[in-house]
Structure formats: structure tokens, C-alpha cells
Amino acid sequence: MARILTGIQSSGVPHLGNILGAIQPAIKLSKFDDNESLFFIADLHSLTTIKNSEIIKHNTFATAATWLAFGFNTDKNIFYRQSDIPEVTELMWILNCFTQYPMLANAHSFKDKSNNLADVNSGLFNYPVLMAADILLYDADIVPVGKDQLQHLEMTRDIAGSFNHQMGDTLTLPKSKVSENMMIVPGIDGKKMSKSYNNTINIFTEKKLLKKQIMSIVTDSLGLEDVKNPSTCNVFKIFKLLANEGQIKEMENKYMRGGFGYGHAKNELLELIIEKFSKEREIYFELMSKPEKIEQKLKEGSEKARKIASSVLLRVKNKLGI
Ligand code: ADP
Ligand code: TRP
């Protein structure tokens, strides 16, 4: 049996890019009988950039509700909030003492963030050590991540290797899993959809707001009657990721026939999103109106997670004589 583990920061409400690129593929992986998945909300990591309790709570619930709405099976798997497992920060301290300072100082993501953020706190610097603790605390075998996280995974292996080398074989070295054909969902401006670029589509907003986001997708200035090229159009690129073959063909024909404006295409995309995600939207809104249900799921998950966490931490502490 393989133990799959991944975390998603609660630094915003998940957008269409997060859903198609990370959440759905991870849920698919969790459905194999032989896999046990631990998926968690990395709220401690999000403290490096967010300091507002209401926003942190809202993002945590919104992230959890998204996983649940997309059908993550919390009976077969383990679904929890990072901060509910105090063992993780204890292990992080121990791992800090096995982590070389230059490795952290040279990390791409730290250099990037410290050049761009006004608040360069030590949490940003130690971010990869907390991530290593997240992974090593559960003897995870496989960690599915986006390419941007690969260096963090290498550091986790490095830190575990250093511990094992000095203290004897104790920690499981995880493998990363980057899916090569991972799709990149474009945002409303055509760049990669990302919270940091303010170009997201949030499928869990009311229809009026969703419409506003979709109407702001950037297109060229061809008129209604003009023949259009679907392959260079941002509206079509997003449509194509969601529609079935027949719908895609039909839309292509409309573009190439002329007499079909971008406003029409955007309306069709809006209707497709509403229809395709109607079940998920319903579950999401229902859960968000009853946060105590989400809280309950996270509590059950954290009890299961702590069982593993406390036994691994004990193994580590025994090796250290503490
Ligand atoms: P953001 O760029 O909005 O801050 P994150 O870095 O928090 O998103 O990403 C969370 C997960 O979602 C990662 O696994 C990442 O690879 C995936 N992801 C983010 N944006 C996209 C996108 N536009 N297309 C595909 N996957 C994405
Ligand atoms: N750093 C990851 C991201 O920003 C989130 C994360 C935290 C994570 N801990 C993890 C991912 C452990 C995988 C495993 O996407």
C-alpha cells in the first residue's frame, strides 16, 4: 500500500486552476484501492503571508469545502488541518537541527519571496522545514506536487537523509510525483491562472459574480461577424478544458463560421461551468452555510492523523534520547 500525502495552503479560495490542476487529479489518485491518502490544509504555512483570523478561517473552510464538494472520501482517507496536529511543529524543531542554513538561504522560493514581499519573516525562511515535517511525520511514500514545489521535496529528502545518517535509519524518504501532462489552466488575462496575478475564475461564487469574472476574459477586438480563431482565444482555451468532444467541435465551428461574438462564447462558458459543477456548487454552498459540519470532518481526520503522527514522533524522540 502506498501512502500519498499532499497539502494545500489556505492562502485563498481555490480557483479553477487549483481545482483542475491539483484537487481533481489528487482525488483521482486517492481512489485506487491500494492507496491511502492524507490530504491536509496547510494553515500554518499560510500564516507566513496572512495575519487576519477571519480570512484564515474563511480560507480554511473554503479549501476544505472544495475538497469535500469534489468528492474526497474522508472515510477511506485522512483529511485534516495542519494546525490540529501539534506534533508537526515539534518535529519541525527537531528537523531544524538537522537542516543546513545555506540550503534554506539558497532556496528559490525563499529568494523569490524575500525579493517581492514587504514582510520577510523567519516563517518564510523555515517554510521548507515545516513542509518536511508535514511529510516525514506520516511516513509518506508519494507526494504529488506542482513543479514549483519540487525543490521543497528535494530538501525534505535531504533533511531526512541527514537525520538517518546521523541517528540511524528512522525516517521514510518520500518520492515526488509531478504529472508531466499536468494542465496549466489559463487565467482571464491568458497568463497562468494564479491568486498572485488576480486573474482567477472562482467557480464557487454566485452566478452574477462568476459572470463578471467570465465577461472580463481578455479577447482580441474582432467584431461579431468576423471569423475567429479558437486556438488563440482565451475563452475557448478554458472552455476546451471543461467541455466534452461534441461541445468542443460545435464551439470550434461557431468560431470559424463567423456571426458568433466573444460575448456569446463567454455566455456559453458561463452556462457550461454552472451546469458542469452544479452538484459541486450545491455541496459547497451547503457546507459553507454549516461550517460546524466541516469542523466535524476536520476533527475526525485529525484524530486519525494524530495516531500516525504521535507514533512517528515517538520513534524520532527515542533516537534522540528526548
Ligand atoms: P496559486 O498560483 O493560485 O497561488 P498555488 O501555488 O497555491 O496556487 O497552487 C496550489 C496547487 O494548484 C498547486 O498544486 C499548483 O500546481 C496548482 N495550480 C495552481 N494554479 C494552477 C493553474 N493555473 N493550472 C494548473 N494547476 C494550478
Ligand atoms: N508548500 C505547498 C504549496 O504551496 C503546500 C504544502 C505544505 C505541501 N506542506 C506540504 C505540499 C506537504 C505537499 C506536502 O503548494
Can you describe what's shown?
- The protein has helices at residues 16-30, 43-46, 53-69, 87-96, 101-105, 108-116, 122-136, 150-167, 207-215, 234-242, 245-257, 262-276, 278-289, 291-320, and strands at residues 2-9, 35-42, 78-81, 142-144, 175-177.
- It is mostly helical and 322 residues long.
- It folds into two domains: 2-185 and 291-320, 3-Layer(aba) Sandwich (Rossmann fold); 204-276, Tyrosyl-Transfer RNA Synthetase (Orthogonal Bundle), CATH 1.10.240.10.
- Helix 4 packs across helix 7, helix 4 runs parallel beside helix 14 (291-320) and helix 9 (207-215) packs antiparallel against helix 12.
- The radius of gyration is 22 Å and the shape is elongated.
- The mean pLDDT is 95.
- The site of tryptophan has 13 residues, from strand 1 and helix 7.
- Adenosine-5'-diphosphate binds at residues 8-9, 17-18, 21-22, 146, 183-185, 192-196.
Which shape, going by the Cα principal axes? elongated
- Poorly predicted regions are none
Count of individual helical segments: 14
Radius of gyration: 22 Å
Q: Span between N and C termini?
A: 31 Å
CATH top level of the largest domain is Alpha Beta
Looking at how many chains there are and whether they match, the oligomeric state comes to: single chain
Tell me the number of structural domains: 2
The CATH architecture of the largest domain is 3-Layer(aba) Sandwich
Structural class: mainly alpha
* Count of beta strands: 5
| Biggest beta sheet summary | 3 strands, parallel
Q: Strand percentage, roughly? A: 5-15%
CATH fold-level name of the largest domain:
Rossmann fold
Helix content: 55-70%
